[in-house]
Amino acid sequence: MLDAGFVHTYIDTHLEQRQVNKIQHGFPSPRYWSRTDVPVEEIAEDRRRVRAAGRDSFVNFYVGVPYCIQTDPGKCGYCLFPVEEFQGNAALENYFGYVEREADLYREALSGATLGAVYFGGGTSNLYREPLYHRLMDLVRGLFPDIAPQADITLEGIPQLFSRAKMQAIKDSGMNRVSMGIQQVDERLNKLSGRKQTTRHVVQSLEWARELGLAANVDLIFGWPQQTVGTMLKDLQTLVSWNVYDITHYELNVGGPTDFALNRFHELPSTLANLEMYRASRDFLTDQGYEQITAYNFRKPGDPAGRGYEEGVNRFLDSMDTVGLGYAAVSFFGNSAIGTDRSWSFINHLSLPRYKQALEEGRFPVERGFSHEAADWRLAMLFRSLFGLTVNRADYRAAFGTDVYEEFATVWDGLGEYGFVEVSDEEVGLVGDGPFYTPMVQALLAEERYRALRERETRAAQARRAARRARRTGTDGDGAGTEEVVASPGTGAPADTEAPADAEAAAATPARG
Ligand SMILES: C[S@@+](CC[C@H](N)C(=O)[O-])C[C@H]1O[C@@H](n2cnc3c(N)ncnc32)[C@H](O)[C@@H]1O
Ligand code: SF4
């Protein structure tokens, strides 16, 4: 257990530091996903075994698109996701042909599986032309012939690329929800990202969705360059006045060689200003009747088109099965019925040529992954549950045989002193500013395990060096640990500063990186 003094110092020194969101991949960070020998067939076999034993959970399904329209500055000035510049419909449809091939590889493994939710994300999934929405749903039905009526099937896109005809095709194909990346309603602030979105695009897209009975979610970002509590509240007021039921309000993740990090850093609100924005947005939305579902998601009850979808939350502590198809898509598989040390997180190729080449050769296009030990799996599930703001102590005990409070008592007690956490007999919950500090809470919970993983990496690196020396000198090296870390961590890895964007894709679906 972490030393109480360490916990205090950690919290004190991190209160004013920028929160770097790691929600997308749960635990551990993709930096540690270094196994290049991910046994996808074995994982498929495990999936079949739990199904045969009647212990399978539903499968969440994600399909990604690599492409986005060009902006100036590039990548919308802030985006940390791997994306490629849109090269036209022919390239997009050619890419989709590869996704269909990948789906074929999964067909047998998924036979008889129950679908949970579907997320078509990216990149920009509303770049597709009308007929492609039907093909996307044909692909889903080909793998999951029985789709439950309550399954959420979401397509993500940007307002200026929706049209009435596309929205109609989305509806007719059987999808039932759209998610729009708006970021800022304020046109002046939005322009800083190089996106050419107008308020008209946003209003029009929301109207089409409503007219056609599609549930509509919007993504906003706070902590934007030049943003103030005032401009943020004005945007939220506008969305509330348009009767948007489902609002995702992300804090900006800053990092990498993005325009915001390199050229607008001085225009960014400080962490404490972001905290003020978090508080003001939470209070405003809850006053308006919205419920806080996660650190970032707010939903108003009574959406005639909604089905109670909880983006990014996994309420089950004993299983997770998410299948991600496409460029840079992420998959997770684990089920306590087969032993938690057989669970995996893995990511598809982040290089489009390599993604395609693998499929041409009939291979799963997986780049690398992480094999969980029991402690990793437990943390991964704890993170997912905590993203939904609470962890049920009885459920945790049933899944892992330990009490979640006792296991991390010094962390919860330390956070409790700052008013970030409340512990009752039933649950441990994030309260007050706690949800804003979710990344810090996660870091504390994972601190001991990260120390162990870092030690393992160091040992593996030493073993690799010894083996190289031995090869050079012709003597036997100590190869211990080399099977654990095949590629050195960080090689080709997505930025450690992953954006939260696909939090929705992550648990509700297997997000991509
Ligand atoms: C990866 S994007 C894909 C959807 C679509 N291309 C778009 O831009 O709206 C999904 C969401 O991620 C969020 N996002 C992207 N980069 C982010 C960052 N650096 N910090 C916080 N949120 C980010 C945005 O809110 C965006 O709507
Ligand atoms: S924010 Fe969306 S549109 Fe912009 S680069 Fe990222 S994925 Fe593409």
From TrEMBL:
InterPro entries: Aldolase_TIM, Coproporphyrinogen-III_oxidase, Elp3/MiaA/NifB-like_rSAM, rSAM, rSAM_sf. The keyword Phosphoprotein does not apply. Residues 461-513 are annotated as: Disordered. One of its GO terms (cellular component) is cytoplasm. The keyword Transit peptide does not apply. Keywords: Iron, Iron-sulfur, Metal-binding, S-adenosyl-L-methionine. SUPFAM superfamilies: Radical SAM enzymes. It comes from Streptomyces longispororuber. GO terms for biological process: porphyrin-containing compound biosynthetic process. This is Heme chaperone HemW. One of its GO terms (molecular function) is metal ion binding. Residues 51-291 form the Radical SAM core domain. Residues 489-513 have a biased composition (Low complexity).
